[in-house]
Amino acid sequence: MEEKEAIIASSEGVSREFNTLINSQDLDSLKQLQHIILGRLQDSNAVLSHFNDYSEQCFAEVSSDLSANTRLLKSMKADLDYIFLKLRSIKAKIKGTYPDAFPDDSTIESLDRRPDLEVPR
């Protein structure tokens, strides 16, 4: 029992000494700043929750259009792939029948007199 009382007495002494190290006004100002920060964080949390709800509503409104447009683009890409495949096969047949029908790269450069729009003037 004496050991327990000694521990209690020493811990009370340490806490008294610790209290002399801390300024109560500083502690009160820290508490006040913590309450201000807590209020601001709660306000920010409310704003973010409102924004998330609004974003979810907007996404629900446009998601059907987005998926429909995505399907349309995929369909258009498949159609274009098919068209270019057919064009390549037609070009190969024409080139097989008429070898001089398509000029080679050096001839294309001499025939192409269009200005290069990529070069700054």
Automatic annotation (TrEMBL):
Domain of life here? Eukaryota
UniProt lists the family membership as follows: Belongs to the KXD1 family.
| UniProt xrefs under PANTHER family | KXDL MOTIF-CONTAINING PROTEIN 1
Q: What is the lineage of its organism?
A: Eukaryota, Viridiplantae, Streptophyta, Embryophyta, Tracheophyta
Biological process annotations from GO? lysosome localization
Annotated segments matching region Disordered: 102-121
Q: What is the protein's name according to its record?
A: KxDL domain-containing protein
Q: Where is the composition biased (Basic and acidic residues)?
A: 110-121
Please name the InterPro entries in this protein's record. Answer: KXD1-like, KxDL_dom
Task: Name a single GO cellular component.
Answer: BORC complex
A Pfam family in this protein?
A: KxDL
KxDL domain: which residues?
18-102
The organism is: Deinandra increscens subsp. villosa
